[in-house]
Description:
By secondary structure, this protein is mostly helical. The protein has helices at 2-32, 66-73, 81-86, 123-127, 131-136, 141-163, 166-181, and strands at residues 36-42, 48-54, 91-93, 119-121. The radius of gyration is 16 Å and the shape is globular. It starts with a helix and ends with a helix.
Amino acid sequence: MKRFFDILLSIFLLLFLSWLIVLLLLIATFDTGNGLFLQKRIGQYGLPFTIFKIRTLNLYNNRISTLGQLLRRYKLDELPQLLNILLGEMSFVGPRPDLPGYYDALQGEARNILELKPGLFSIAALKYIDEASLLRNQKHPLKYNDEIIFPDKVKMNLEYYYNRSFIGDIKILFKCVKSIFISRI
Length: 185
């Protein structure tokens, strides 16, 4: 049921939003030097996959562009991940895919998270919707992420693992979309 939903919704959104994705990729190309950003992330079963995003950092000075700030605020830089969902590498709801060295390094019960497909939306992503500014305000952002944020995300993702359901996924999906577009306007 979940995979069928992922396929149908991703096809619909890709068809409906393809013009916007192409436009944002073109603008981002002029704004950042390369519109598409590809990065290795850890997926289901701890296997790496390539995530698709719209580039928000300038290639030449590694700073977030003006457009990039807007795209990140409304999570529009994540739109190309609809293709990751269609390809079966991601789902609409599940733990956000992380860089190598985090989920693939989990031990014990926490490794159960790796049985899940990574998601575009999650309860942890909702809680840390403005994670970048939270980290920016820390004296030691990497340490804060590794000791506070990441363990909290693992806890929330484990809770999702044990309590997941299709109806629960729909609720998470709507909460995240509402948070991104309605409460940030």
